[in-house]
Structures are given as C-alpha cells and as structure tokens.
Amino acid sequence: MDITGRPSQEIYDVVGIGFGPSNMSLAIALEEHEASSPQHPIKAHFFERQPTFGWHRNMLLPSTTMQISFLKDLVTFRNPTSRYGFISFLHASDRLVQFVNNQDFFPTRQEFHQYLEWAAADLSDRVTYGAEVTSIRPRTGADAETPDLLEIEVRGSDGTTSVVTARNVAISTGLVPRLPEGMTAGERVWHSSEFLSRFNAQDPRGLKSVAVVGAGQSAAEITRFLYDSLPHAEVSAIMPSYGYSIADDTPFANQVFDPSAVDEYYFGTERARDSFWRYHRNTNYSVVDADVIRALYQRSYDEQVRGSQRLHFRNLTRVAEVEQTGDATRVVLHSQLDDKTTELAVDAIVFATGYDGVDPARLLGDFDQNFLRDKAGRHQVTRDYRLVAASGLTCGVYLQGGTEHTHGLTSALLSNIAIRSGEIADSIVLRRTEQELGSSVKVARSAA
Ligand code: FDA
Ligand code: NAP
C-alpha cells in the first residue's frame, strides 16, 4: 500500500500537490467529468501539507470580506448546476434565505472558509492531509524512450517518505510569503501570513507598541484589527506610499478577471500584456478595499476629535533595519519625506509585504532543466497550463498559480479557478485519450 492507502504500483492519471481552492476545484472538475463519462474514470489523488483543510487561516480576521463575488466559487462559472456551489452550501447550512435578505455579493472570509471546509469534507476520500510533497522526478517507462511517468516524493506527518507514480501533476502550492531583503521573521517579527497564530500566542497586555509595514489589503486589515483589539496600544502603520490606495473593483476594470481575458492576455501582444499590468495592477496589488480605508480614516479622525492619538501613519517610510535583543525590538525607519532616519521601539512588528507566486522549480529540482524558459527566464507555459518541455515528454506538469506572465492577473486569485480547473481536467482527459490511441496504433502496426 502507498501513502494514499492504494496498492503501491498504482499509476495515477494526476497527482495534485496542495489542496487549496485551486486543486479542490480540479478535484471537483475531475469528479464531474467521471460522472458524465463513467467508463473512463480518472485516477486522481491530492496531497496537502496542512493537517486539515485551511485557507489562509492566519488572516481570518473578524469582519474581513471576500474580494470576489460568492458566484466565483469552486464551480459555478464552469458548471452552475454543480452540487459544490456556494448556493448549495448556503442551502445545506439553512441560510440561503437570510443570505439573500442580506443583499451582499461579498461574504465574510469566515463564511467563505466555512464553504470551503464544507466542500473539502465531501472530497476527503481523495486527499491525504499532513503530507508534504518534497520533489517530483521523471521515471522512464519500460517501453518508452522518454520519461512518461512522474515519481512524486511525499513526506508524511510522521516523517516517513513515500513515492507515488503519476502521468501528470498539478502543482498548486499557493503564494509564498515575502519579507523585505535583510529582514528575518522571529518571535516579535511576523509576516502577515502567520499573523493570527503569532498574535494569539501573546499576552495582549504585553503588546503596548505595535507596527505594521505595507499599504496593501493585508496591512490595512491588520492595522485595523490591532487598533481595535489593543485599546491600550500605540499602533504605527509604516507605509511606502503617501496613503492607502483604493482597489479598483469597478465593472470595466473587473473585466480583467473574466475568463475571456485569459485568452486575450495569453494570445495578446507583448504590448497588450504590459498594458494589462500598467493599467490594472491596482485591481489587486498594493491596494485596499474602500470600506477598510474609510474605517481606518474614521478611527484617525475620531482621535483628532478626542484630542488623543495612538494610531500613527508613517507615510513615505520604509523599514531600514530591525534589531531584536531579548524582548526589545528596535526598528529603524527611513522617511523619504526628509531623508531622515528615526527609531521606533515595538513589542511586535508585522510585515504585510506581500507574496511571491508559485515556483515549480522548487519541487522539480534538476528535472526543471527539461522545461523551457522565455527570454526573461520565466517558465514557458501552454494555454492549458502545462510547462513546455524541451523534448518529447509525455507526462504533464500543470500549474495552478505561477502563470501571471503567461495567463494574466487571475493566476493567483480565485476569480477563474472554476474555468481553469475545467480546462486542466479536459486537457488531462484529452491527452490520455490521445496517448491510448497512439499506443493502440503502435500495437496494431507491430501485429501487422
Ligand atoms: P492556496 O495557497 O490557497 O493553497 C495552496 C495549498 O498548498 C496550501 O493549503 C498549502 O498548505 C499547500 N501546499 C504548499 N506546498 C505544499 C507541498 N509541497 N505539499 C503539499 N501541500 C502543499 N483571492 C481572491 O480572488 N479573492 C479573495 O478574496 C482573496 N482573499 C485572499 C486573502 C488572503 C489573506 C490572501 C493571502 C490571499 C487571498 N486571495 C484572494 C488570493 C489567494 O491566492 C487565493 O484566495 C487562493 O488561496 C488561491 O488558491 P490556491 O489553491 O491556488 O492556493
Ligand atoms: P500586496 O498587495 O502585495 O501589498 C504588499 C504591500 O507591502 C505593498 O504596499 C508594498 O509596497 C509593501 N511592501 C513590499 N515590500 C516592502 C518593503 N520592503 N518596505 C515597505 N513596504 C513594502 O500584499 P497583500 O496586502 O498581502 O495582498 C496579497 C493578496 O492577498 C492580494 O491579492 C490581496 O487582494 C489578497 N488579500 C485579500 C484579503 C481579503 O480577501 N480580505 C485580505 C488580505 C489580502 P509597494 O507597492 O511599494 O510594493
């Protein structure tokens, strides 16, 4: 038996690495394909390193809302009649009527998390939790000249390592937290991705001075949370910009997240792709939802009316250095306004400085040399989200994430996961059919 509980010689059609929303959506697309074509079942299994399902748990702050409509769930854009839609979840939770009364397209992140947990529970037979994939390498099949199978090495929660074999992998390992160069996370220096677990481990009375670095959605949400949760604390927002900028979610701009925008980006000219970023980066990066900006400004204004200030906005300012000695943390700030350096003593500092995308090379190791890169050194990716192989590899390495340079802004977001997963599922099925046809032609030729 392998780590999945199936016979160890099992060859999967696809192994999914990571079980966040993207690969959950793929698991459902594959299940729904099988339901419509039961004579051709797809053997799929998924590995998730967390012990149970969780979606950015450390940022499940009270009252934070989704940045997409509830209809951009795991399935609806691909199959509105799927049983895995958000509306089915509301119905199962006996809350559909109340949700409609509430007249809001944007559920809280806590409610969306409940939805994802509800869907994950139904998919549990095809996931192994507490299982981290550590590498992917090629295995040459007995009758093939080129590698046609992949070996996936998985480390279980007990530290033991197993290998499973598959024709394809779908890498969907999510965003990678990014700290500014020279900064190291520690007891009092946190990245936003670990915020709640770090915060909850503290005695709030010991947090008398806290700072948040960045001017994106994470920074603004954490600043508001700290201000509200620590009524005795000084809260400093250290911003590279002059103020928070608004996330453009107006209808015309929002079209950059439409499924059709993927084709326009993918097949567009280099200039078109540049324009997507130049004009529409502010739909997602380094921007904040209007309600959070207003909530923070209101708190600041109320302080002015009261004549007491503990919310400090340090604009056009960056962190030059952080020094930790015992419980004391000293932050050196550099202001672009006057080019001066000041110091700030804090009990904790949160770097809400964003993320990097999926980099498949981390898992591919030496095998990565088999895949082509563009002039800028980025992986080449087919329209159906497969890494382009240098020579005739028949196995497929699919990416869910890490394709902003080829497929555009939806790459790291939820907006298009239903459609993207359907396209990947279709591609896996189609390529398998082509390979089966190819093998039967070979057999017929050799028999003739
Ligand atoms: P996701 O990161 O969710 O899942 C990847 C999974 O892979 C994780 O569970 C991880 O544990 C696992 N994993 C990683 N390496 C592994 C390995 N080697 N082996 C096994 N498992 C491994 N977007 C949007 O469109 N609307 C929104 O409202 C939000 N909100 C939002 C809030 C916050 C706080 C953040 C940080 C981001 C968002 N996003 C977002 C963007 C976000 O990328 C998106 O919501 C999804 O998380 C993307 O889903 P994925 O499954 O691709 O990655
Ligand atoms: P982000 O949008 O990338 O913002 C990072 C911020 O950190 C930017 O202001 C950036 O400034 C700043 N920064 C980066 N390096 C810095 C440095 N060295 N010094 C000072 N500042 C620095 O990251 P995010 O806010 O974590 O958002 C990431 C994704 O998660 C987005 O898609 C966002 O929408 C999503 N998100 C959603 C929710 C929600 O659904 N409610 C909540 C949080 C996050 P520059 O502009 O100068 O780079």
Comma- or semicolon-separated keywords:
448 residues, alpha/beta, FAD/NAD(P)-binding domain, 3 domains, five-stranded parallel sheet, binds dihydroflavine-adenine dinucleotide, binds NADP nicotinamide-adenine-dinucleotide phosphate
CATH topology of the largest domain: FAD/NAD(P)-binding domain
Gyration radius (Cα, Å) is 24 Å
Q: Which CATH architecture of the largest domain would you pick?
A: 3-Layer(bba) Sandwich
Shape: globular
User: Structural class of the secondary elements?
Assistant: alpha/beta
* Relative helix content: 25-40%
Count of DSSP-assigned helices: 13
CATH homologous superfamily placement of the largest domain: FAD/NAD(P)-binding domain
- Order of strands, widest sheet: 4-3-2-8-19
Percent of residues in beta strands = 15-25%
Distance between the termini: 39 Å
The major beta sheet can be summarized as: 5 strands, parallel
List how many beta strands DSSP finds: 19
Poorly predicted residue ranges? none
Mean pLDDT: 95
Task: Describe the structure in your own words.
- This protein is of the alpha/beta class and 448 residues long.
- 32% of the residues lie in helices and 20% in strands.
- The protein has three domains: 11-174 and 358-447, FAD/NAD(P)-binding domain, CATH 3.50.50.60; 178-247 and 284-355, FAD/NAD(P)-binding domain; 251-283, no CATH class.
- The chain is built from 13 helices and 19 strands.
- It has a five-stranded parallel sheet with strand order 4-3-2-8-19, with helices on one face. The protein has a five-stranded parallel sheet with strand order 10-17-11-12-13.
- The longest helix is centred in the last third of the chain and has 31 residues, at 417-447.
- The mean pLDDT is 95.
- The chain binds dihydroflavine-adenine dinucleotide (FDA) and NADP nicotinamide-adenine-dinucleotide phosphate.
- The site of NADP nicotinamide-adenine-dinucleotide phosphate (NAP) has 25 residues, from α6 and β14.
